[in-house]
Each structure stands twice: as structure tokens, then as C-alpha cells.
Specification:
The chain is an alpha/beta fold. It has helices spanning 2-16, 31-43, 46-57, 82-100, 136-151, 166-175, 221-227, 230-237, 257-265, 304-308, 330-339, 393-396, 409-426, 453-457, and strands spanning 104-109, 157-161, 186-190, 193-195, 205-207, 210-211, 213-215, 241-246, 270-276, 286-290, 293-297, 320-329, 346-350, 354-355, 361-362, 369-373, 388-390, 442-445, 471-474. The strands form seven sheets. A seven-stranded mixed sheet has the order 3-2-1-8-12-9-17, sandwiched between helices. The chain has a two-stranded antiparallel ribbon with strand order 4-7. The structure holds uridine 5'-triphosphate (UTP).
């Protein structure tokens, strides 16, 4: 009876918003389904939806690039003066102190749907290490364990999932004994979702009883950290800094003392690592200064004349690309949540399965609908201060996005092997090469063996002679 009354009221409301089709299959739903569907509809924020329809759905939002868009001056790979050398040394020491004092936590975003890769299950469970075929989650867990051991500190790990992969992710960690990390030191939580729309602005139904929706983007992490209790947990532990990365990048240096230290010395609120783009139009965000604030402008939004513009020495004016590695202050997450903030949305046209008005399940072959998401880097301009540290692609960035070709498991494995070989070579070890110069064997360095190049130097006598086509695992 009550549901019936609610139905009438909500149906009238939806009709006024051109969304009454959400109740098209009401007569076919049982009581529990009806209750659930009404709850989903009540959760929709129609005041925002009107804005999304106007700005993102019915037209692709135009991102105006401010006229005073200027290049960012990063901290370079190496200090460029004696003063800066001292600063790097001081920062490295401070970073180590902060890690040792348990002030730094690991934070991976793993709530994406990985549609391009098309892997069945959470992407973190994708096997990738070149010799042992360890999964992404296992590599990160072993890294965190090795850092805890090295610095004699507890390094909690926060993992953002979505309602679509939370249960599976939890089960992966449970069935793997949390990879040897304490269960209490691994905090798995969920981000929010946003509804999917067709090109006319109608919200899609996933089936007759449920609204179609997608995770709200990695930018959803700021609200999710706050609302899930993760931030509260950090405060209890005395954690002050989050080392943020994306689940598809196994090369990440999660606890980099220099990066953490420079960020802390400069009293920044949210900072970033950057690399030099491989070509002007590489599909990564561009670091720019807009109104004096460090900002990332998507590759598709930076006007061609700026993308291609060069310095007198031939380098690109906007040469710094974003690799989604950040240090974020917990106090920053709290500040923006308690003072009110919103990140802009970005529109993606995707293939989204749904039921049509006849109740038929449509599994589209072509992109048919709009997904809205917010991006973590859009929070950078909200930070009072933000630094950028340059890094090398070969050391820190090899994301797995596609099943084949660029940014695929094959290229990521190659880069893991190439980095391991470079670390060994830097310690004076001879690594077999193919005629084209690529590595002629498989090498996997476990985090327990080395977290960075310098760690290899102390263990040279544990490394066997390496012959072509060997499979070497160092742990
Ligand atoms: P991507 O932009 O590569 O998106 O995410 P995706 O959903 O994983 O993959 P595609 O586009 O469907 O192929 C970059 C990182 O941000 C996380 C992902 O898990 C990945 O680590 N992410 C993305 C979230 O945590 N939540 C989201 O809503 C979106």
C-alpha cells in the first residue's frame, strides 16, 4: 500500500522530468524489487541531473582553456643547482622519516571497469609479473610488505573499489590471506556511482528493476575516502599523507622518499609525478599552470597550437604528462569535504548494456550511451600548493589498458623486464641482449629483493650469471 502511494508520487515526479520510463516494468516487479527500485530513484539527485543534462549529456561540455595557460616548472629528475641538491637530500631524509613514523599510507584506486582490457574480474587480479605471473594486487602487497620491513613501520593500504567489484575484490584478498599483510591494515571501500544516460538524456535501466550506472570516476575517491570511514581510520593511525596510484600500473614506486619529502617540505596539499610526453598528442593529461594553479588539461582539451608549441631548444612547451601518481594530504581530503566542493564531470560515450522500452536486453555492438565521471587530477587546483616531480617512464609508468598493442600486458611485461635489467646493469651485472638491443631473457625482481635501483647494489653477490633465454627470479 505504502509502495503504491510512493509509486504514484514518484511516477508524477518522474513524468515531469521526462524519466517516467524508469517505472515502465513496475507491474512485473515483486515487492522487494519495487522497494529497491524506488530507493534507487530516490537516491538520484535531480537538481544535479538537470545540470548534467544541460552541460554534459545533450552537448559535449566545452572545456575552455584559460588564456594565461603556462607551462609548469617541475622538480627535475636531478637537482639543477647546489642549493637544489641540498633540498633533494633534505627531502629524501624527510620522506624516509615520514614513512618510518607511519605517516604515509598507500592508496590505490581500483574501482574502474577495465572495459578496454576486457579481463573477467577486478583488474588488480590480472597476472602480470614476467616470471612468476604474480597479479597486480600481489605485486603491490609485496611492495608494501617490503617497505614496512625496510622502514620498520606499519604502512596501511587503502583500496577503492566500486559496488561492481567490491565483493570480488574482498574475496580475492580473503582467499589470498591478504597476501601476508595484516587484514586490519588493508582497508577496502567503495566509491559511489552515477546513472548512465542515452543521448536524449533518458536514464537507462540495467534491467527491469535496476537503474544502469557506472562508478563515478577516480575523482570519486575524495568523497569515498571521507564517507567510507577510510579518512577516519587514517586519523586514528596518525597517517598524514596518501600515496595515490592506479591499479593498472605495476611500475609505480609507491613509497618514494624524495617525492613525499619534496611535497612535505614545500607544504603542498596535493602533488604529482610527471614524465616527458613521447609525442605532442600522447593520450595523457598535460600539466599546465592555469591562473597560477597546477592543473591537468586532458590531451583532447589542449588546443592544437599549444600541444605542438615548442621552446627554442626544440622541446615541447607543454611537455609534462600526468601519470596519475600523487601525494595527497589527508587534511586536504578532509578540508574539501567539510567545506564543500565538487569536481567537474567528464563525459564518455560507451557501450552500455540495458533494457529497452520493450524490456529486451540490449548488448550494444557500438557505443550507445553516456557515462559521467570525475577525475582525480581536477582536485589539483583546489590545493593551496602543489608540486610536480619529473620521473622516467621506464622507471614508473607502464599501465595495462588494452588487450594488445600499446599499453597492453605485453608492453607492461617488457617494461618490467627492461627495468629489472637496467637495475642489474647499474650494479655492474651483465644482462644478455638481443641483436635489437632488447633484453634477451626474463628477469623478475621481487620487491623483497629490491624496491629501487640502489637496493640491487647491496645484493650483487646473490645474483647468478645470466645467460640468454634464462628466466631469473630474484627474491
Ligand atoms: P581508467 O581510466 O583506465 O578506467 O582508470 P577503467 O574503468 O579502469 O578502464 P576502461 O576505461 O573501462 O578500459 C584508471 C584508474 O582509475 C581507476 C581504475 O580502476 C584505474 O586504476 N578508476 C577508474 C576507479 O577507481 N574508479 C572509476 O570510476 C574509474
Amino acid at each position: 500500500m505504502c509502495a503504491e502511494r510512493d509509486f504514484n508520487q514518484i511516477e508524477r515526479f518522474l513524468r515531469g522530468r521526462n524519466q517516467a520510463h524508469l517505472l515502465s516494468f513496475w507491474a512485473q516487479l515483486n515487492a522487494a524489487q519495487r522497494k529497491n527500485l524506488l530507493a534507487q530513484i530516490r537516491q538520484l539527485d535531480f537538481s544535479q541531473i538537470d545540470d548534467w543534462l544541460a552541460n554534459y549529456i545533450k552537448k559535449a561540455a566545452f572545456t575552455a582553456v584559460a588564456a594565461d595557460c603556462a607551462p609548469v616548472e617541475p622538480y627535475g629528475l636531478n637537482p639543477d643547482s647546489l642549493d637544489q641538491k641540498r633540498r633533494y637530500e633534505q627531502a629524501g631524509e624527510l620522506g624516509k622519516e615520514l614513512i618510518s613514523a607511519g605517516k604515509v599510507a598507500a592508496f590505490v584506486v581500483a574501482g574502474g571497469q577495465g572495459t578496454r582490457l576486457g579481463f573477467d574480474g577486478p583488474k588488480g587480479n590480472f597476472p602480470i609479473s614476467p616470471v612468476k605471473n604474480k597479479t597486480l594486487f600481489q605485486i603491490f602487497a609485496e611492495t608494501i610488505a617490503a617497505v614496512s620491513e625496510k622502514y620498520q613501520a606499519v604502512c596501511p593500504w587503502y583500496i577503492m573499489t566500486s559496488p561492481f567489484n567490491y565483493a570480488e575484490t574482498k574475496e580475492i584478498f580473503r582467499s589470498n590471506g591478504y597476501y601476508g599483510l595484516g587484514e586490519n591494515d588493508v582497508f577496502i571501500f567503495q566509491q559511489a556511482t552515477l546513472p548512465n544516460f542515452d543521448f536524449d538524456g533518458k536514464i537507462l535501466l540495467a534491467d527491469k528493476a535496476n537503474i544502469a550506472c557506472s562508478p563515478d570516476g577516480h575523482g570519486g575517491s575524495f568523497k569515498a575516502l571521507y564517507q567510507s570511514g577510510a579518512l577516519e581510520d587514517m586519523k586514528k593511525r596518525g597517517v598524514g599523507f596518501l600515496s595515490y596510484w592506479q591499479v593498472d600500473n605495476p611500475l609505480v614506486n609507491i613509497f618514494d622518499p624524495l617525492f613525499i619529502g619534496l611535497h612535505a617540505l614545500d607544504e603542498a596539499e596535493m602533488s604529482s609525478k610527471a614524465l616527458i610526453k613521447s609525442e605532442p598528442k600522447e593520450k595523457i593529461g598535460n600539466f599546465c599552470l592555469v591562473d597560477g594553479k597546477v592543473t591537468v588539461i586532458e590531451y583532447s582539451d589542449l588546443p592544437a597550437e599549444l600541444t605542438e608549441k615548442r621552446n627554442p631548444d626544440g622541446s615541447l612547451l607543454f611537455q609534462l604528462g600526468s601519470i596519475a601518481i600523487h601525494i595527497i594530504n589527508c587534511a586536504f581530503v578532509e578540508r574539501i569535504n567539510t567545506t564543500g566542493f565538487s569536481l567537474p564531470l567528464h563525459r564518455a560515450v560507451k557501450k552500455i548494456p540495458h533494457v529497452d522500452q520493450q524490456g529486451r536486453l540490449i548488448d550494444p555492438a557500438e557505443p550507445n550511451a553516456i557515462k559521467l565521471e570525475s577525475f582525480v587530477f581536477d582536485a589539483l587546483p583546489l590545493a593551496s600548493k602543489s608540486i610536480v616531480l619529473e620521473t622516467l617512464r621506464s622507471e614508473e609508468f607502464a599501465p595495462i589498458k588494452n588487450p594488445t598493442g600499446p599499453d597492453s600486458p605485453e608492453t607492461t611485461k617488457q617494461m618490467l623486464v627492461a627495468r629489472a635489467a637496467a637495475w642489474l646493469e647499474s650494479a655492474g651485472i651483465t644482462v644478455p641482449k638481443k641483436p635489437d638491443g632488447s633484453v634477451g631473457c626474463l628477469i623478475e625482481i621481487a620487491p623483497s629483493f629490491a624496491l629501487e635501483k640502489n637496493d640491487v647494489k647491496d645484493k650483487v653477490n646473490q645474483i647468478p650469471e645470466i645467460k640468454p633465454n634464462d628466466q631469473i627470479y630474484l627474491a
